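Q: Trace token order:
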Amino acid sequence: MNYYIADMHFCHKNILAYDSRPWDDIESMEKGMIDLWNKRVTDEDDVYILGDFCWGGTGKWRSILSSLNGRKHLITGNHDLKKYPEDILALLAEKPTPYMEIVDGDYRVDMSHYPMISYNHDVYEHTVMLYGHVHTTLEFKAVCEAVKTMREQCLAVGLDYKGHLYNCWCGFFDWAPATLEEIINNKQTTCEE
């Protein structure tokens, strides 16, 4: 099974208030999110982390990554490490990358920490863009406005832009990884009308 998640922000104290997270402190947030992750994910599952995994140093990365189930794939975000020591790379399924494409069931899945209005194969019905970074901020609303404008302008000149973008912010899924089906069916994650 494939799972997806963005913007966990382990070790980031200010994120508790920023995201109105349901924990009183970082330690309880970390324990809670690790428990929620491991209740859903087995070691046979693949989890695609769409950036901003952890604000901590390599020791915290090592500790948290090793406590999470599944094969972990990291699409890097702006708050992730800039260099990855070998022992942390060994805890990941592959080398971290800023962009990734996979096939999940009937869907082609393009992934980046940052939303991309124009992405590979955006004219196909079964291609989706998964992203993070914007949480539930005004930037998320701006992404939706940009998608709407892109659709309208493409239609006006006869282009077939599908633009299926989904925000994978962990707060939309009770702070745990979600399947592609859950992401597509969650009306909070999309700009679809």
User: Anything to note?
Assistant: Helices lie at 15-18, 26-40, 58-67, 86-89, 138-156, 180-185. The first strand starts at residue 2 and ends at 5. The chain is about 30% helix and 15% strand.
